[in-house]
Write a structure and sequence with these properties.
Blueprint lengths: L15 E2 L3 E7 L6 E7 L1 H4 L2 H13 L11 E6 L7 E6 L4 E2 H10 L6 H21 L13 E3 L5 E3 L5 H5 L5 H8 L14 H17 L12 H7 L1 E3 L5 E3 L2 H10 L11 H11 L10 H16 L45 H6 L4 H9 L29 H30 L5 E9 L4 E4 L2 E5 L2 E6 L1 E7 L5 E7 L4 E7 L7 H4 L22 E5 L7 E4 L2 E5 L5 E4 L1 E9 L4 E9 L4 E3 L6 E9 L3 E4 L2 E5 L2 E7 L1 E9 L3 E9 L5 E6 L3
Parallel strand pairs: 11-17, 18-24, 25-31
Antiparallel strand pairs: 1-2, 2-3, 3-5, 4-5, 6-7, 7-8, 9-10, 11-14, 12-13, 12-15, 15-16, 18-21, 19-20, 19-22, 22-23, 25-28, 26-27, 26-29, 29-30
């Protein structure tokens, strides 16, 4: 069962709103984590296939996790809200790039070309990672509104599961731009939310960053070429010049201005971008340029609004005065005050020997001298030093008391500072250990986007959710959740190209490998592995603790009996298996795929194909199909065909009704 949110009936003010819905921050009742809830616009959920496509994409990308993406946890239905359908994701501390660009335009903030390219160099590889890991999937909604910039200047892509659902609305190119700010390439019919569409979104975002402002409603798609021709790049010193030819060509290919030369995917755009920003080029897309811009953005937000002029007061009508006027005497000039005689100035040695008055020593005796007082003068204002008379010489006993009081005050102050440091430090975070092994060894290991050495690696991390990534060929991304004090192991197998036997030995030759047999070291932990093959990702838990997912090639466990739980919350599938792990052996855990129920209907009628196989003509009731993602095609000889992506679960049956004439 999906976790509910704390206080769902409490109205929250949305952080951000657009045509897709409202985003609010809430707390997950199960984990206590802050989550961001996207409450879908009811006008979108009125289309039956919208929810099916959304759940299918969430289930398919459930195991796609990376630090450049806001992790989607689940799809919820909250009856307490008017918008029943919502997408729950991790809350990312940051600001939508659309808001940053709007403030930059209003306050005339300077966004130089290096800061713009720093963001583009984060966006393009992030989408390239999605395109490489999900070959036939795309974000679909790439825009300034769905990019979050953290205070550290890191770009995070949000709502990457919603594109397939919005595609079900069958909106045209201009309507997608005006309602959702989604840029699509030119097409003969209804736009497709594919990888080429993502590249078009990259081009619009990059052009907005170069211009230093968001594109307006009437500037795309017709005005994109004119904007590019008139765009100028700004240096860090504020000098403007025309765009360089390589950068202008890259933007034109990303914006799909010439379909014959346009980029077809994000990996292709990334290769061309690397050539523009390579070492020795005129551009230095360094984070320091972006940090400088974000500092100016924060200053603009904190600046007080300009004071408004006071409203003019209505003029008072003076009534005529009928009485006698009293005589007014002429003003008399007052005598200026007499200047006081200057006081004598004494030597510095006399100043040091004079006693301090009791009014200054009293706060030191009773400990009441720590209150902050207003400054005696403004250092920036001109002033003159008055001449003062100094008191009588200080007695030795008074001087000793003053020294003792000052020392006591210093001790109290230092103790207060030390106590503040202790309290401000907080409780150190709970730690856990992650052991990563691979075959072959020496694979670079990244945790939360930070390189942590090569395999085999033993890494100490803070308890909580992390993203483990091993980069060898196609990157392997594995979500890992660590509890305090846990020791979690991960093992991945990387396929190597087999070496032909002819290279190992000549024909008719015998090859023997002789090696001494070794026993395990005393006290060494004996472990084995489990392998599970499923068409969809499942989490593997033991006693409520997440060990890994079925997408990993192998999962290392200590030898002995284990009661493992395999869970896919999106598909409402949960099964428990008792597995005996043999030391040094691989155990195959076979799981049966349960079946769900699908009810299909069409008006007037249609022939139905499930995953390319004909299943009959509508109406079709209680059709049993394996749980998971499926494609259903309704085909009519006169009205054509309609495609629907559905996610069949082990819970409630799926019902689809199609109007073929529309």
């Amino acid at each position: 069962m999906a976790a509910t949110l704390i206080c769902p009936e409490r109205p929250e003010s949305p952080l951000f709103s657009d045509g897709i819905g409202d985003r609010v921050v809430s707390t997950d009742a199960t984990t206590g984590d802050l989550v961001q809830v996207l409450r879908i616009n009811p006008a979108l959920t009125a289309v039956p296939s919208f929810e099916f496509a959304l759940r299918e994409r969430v289930a398919r990308l459930a195991n796609f996790r990376h630090g450049a993406y806001a992790r989607v946890r689940r799809v919820d239905r909250a009856a307490a809200h008017a918008t029943a359908l919502s997408v729950v994701s991790d809350h990312i501390e940051g600001t939508r790039l659309s808001d940053i660009m709007r403030v930059a335009e209003e306050h005339h903030l300077h966004l130089d070309i290096n800061a713009a390219l720093c963001l583009v160099r984060q966006l393009v590889p992030a989408l390239a990672l999605l395109h490489e890991n999900a070959r036939d999937a795309a974000h679909g909604l790439v825009s300034l509104e769905r990019l979050i910039i953290t205070p550290q200047g890191r770009l995070v892509v949000a709502e990457h599961v919603c594109g397939a659902a919005v595609e079900q609305m069958q909106f045209g190119r201009e309507r997608l731009w005006h309602e959702f700010r989604v840029a699509m390439p030119p097409s003969a019919g209804i736009p497709r939310f594919d990888q080429r569409g993502d590249v078009t979104g990259i081009g619009v975002v990059a052009l907005s960053l170069v211009l230093g402002r968001p594109l307006r409603g009437d500037e795309f798609p017709g005005g994109a070429a004119d904007l590019l021709n008139g765009a100028r790049e700004r240096s860090a010193l504020g000098v403007e010049q025309p765009l360089s030819a390589p950068l202008r060509s890259w933007l034109a290919r990303a914006l799909q201005l010439d379909v014959r030369r346009a980029f077809g995917s994000a990996p292709e755009a990334m290769m061309a971008l690397d050539e523009i920003t390579a070492d020795g080029s005129t551009y230095v897309a360094a984070p320091v340029a972006l940090e400088t811009f974000l500092s100016g953005y924060a200053t603009a937000l904190l600046a007080p609004p300009p004071a408004s002029a006071p409203a003019p007061r209505p003029l008072e009508v003076m009534r005529p005065f009928d009485g006698p006027l009293a005589p007014v005497s002429a003003p008399t000039a007052e005598d200026p005050p007499a200047a006081s005689a200057p006081l004598p100035i004494r030597e510095l040695s006399e100043l040091l020997s004079d006693p301090l008055p009791d009014s200054l020593l009293a706060p030191l005796r009773d400990g009441t001298g720590n209150e902050e007082v207003a400054p005696l003068f403004d250092p920036a204002a001109p002033f003159s030093a008055p001449q003062v008379s100094l008191p009588a010489p200080l007695k030795p006993s008074h001087r000793r008391r003053l020294i003792v009081a000052a020392a006591a005050l210093a001790i109290v102050a230092s103790g207060g500072i030390a106590g503040y440091r202790v309290l401000a430090g907080g409780v150190p975070p709970a730690l856990a250990t992650l052991s990563v092994q691979s075959n072959p060894a020496g694979v670079p290991v990244f945790v939360d986007g930070v390189e942590r050495g090569v395999t085999p690696a033993r890494i100490t991390l803070a308890a909580g959710a992390h993203i483990l990534e091993l980069r060898r060929g196609v990157p392997r991304v594995i979500p890992v959740t660590l509890t305090a004090g846990a020791d979690v192991s991960q093992y991945l197998e990387f396929a190597e190209t087999p070496v032909p036997e002819s290279l190992l030995a000549p024909p008719a030759a015998a090859v023997a490998v002789v090696a001494p047999r070794t026993e395990p070291a005393p006290g060494a932990t004996l472990a084995g592995w489990i392998v599970t093959r499923m068409p969809f990702a499942m989490e593997i838990l033991e006693k409520g603790q997440l060990l890994g997912t079925t997408d990993a090639d192998r999962l290392m466990l200590a030898s002995g009996a284990h009661e493992l739980e395999f869970v896919n919350a999106a598909l409402a599938y949960r099964v428990t298996r008792t597995v005996n792990i043999a030391a040094g052996k691989v155990t195959n855990v076979a799981l049966e795929i349960p079946r769900g129920v699908v009810n299909l209907n069409a008006t007037p009628w249609a022939e139905v194909f499930l995953d390319g196989q004909a299943v009959g003509e509508t109406p079709i009731g209680n059709l049993s199909v394996p749980i998971g993602a499926h494609e259903i095609v309704f085909r009519h000889p006169q009205f054509g065909e309609k495609r629907h992506a559905v996610s069949v679960t082990a819970g409630a049956p799926v019902r689809i009704s199609v109007e073929m004439k529309q």
